[in-house]
Write a structure and sequence with these properties.
By secondary structure, the protein is α+β, with helices and mostly antiparallel strands. It has five helices and four strands. It has one domain: 434 Repressor (Amino-terminal Domain), CATH 1.10.260.40. The strands form two sheets. A two-stranded antiparallel ribbon has the order 1-2. A two-stranded antiparallel ribbon has the order 3-4. The longest helix is centred in the middle third of the chain and has 11 residues. The N and C termini lie far apart (31 Å).
C-alpha cells in the first residue's frame, strides 16, 4: 500500500485522520506521515501490519481475539492462498 492508497482507504470509509488513528491504534501524526509518504526528508513505508489492519477494517472487523469466526468458510484463491467467505458467499 502506498501513501495514495492509504489516503484513499481512509476516505473510502469516511474517516477523519484522528478517527483512522484511533481505529488503527496509532497517533494522528503517523496517519499524516503515511498519507504524505514522508517524515521530514525521510521516506515512510506503511508496515504490512497496518496494511492488513486497514483491510480488516474495510471488511468490518473491529477487533480480533484469536478465535476463528464461526460464520465463515474458507475458500481457495489463486496461488494456494485462502480467504474467508461468508457462508452465504460460499454456498
Amino acid at each position: 500500500m502506498d501513501s495514495g492508497g492509504f489516503k484513499a482507504w481512509r476516505k473510502s470509509l469516511g474517516l477523519k485522520q484522528k478517527e483512522a488513528a484511533e481505529k488503527l491504534g496509532l497517533k494522528k501524526r503517523m496517519i499524516q506521515y503515511y498519507e504524505t509518504g514522508r517524515r521530514g526528508s525521510k521516506k515512510v513505508v506503511i508496515p504490512k501490519t497496518v496494511e492488513l489492519a486497514c483491510y480488516a477494517l474495510s471488511m468490518g472487523v473491529e477487533g480480533f481475539d484469536g478465535e476463528p469466526r464461526t460464520d465463515t468458510a474458507v475458500a481457495p484463491l489463486t496461488g494456494g492462498r485462502k480467504a474467508r467467505l461468508s457462508r452465504k458467499e460460499a454456498a
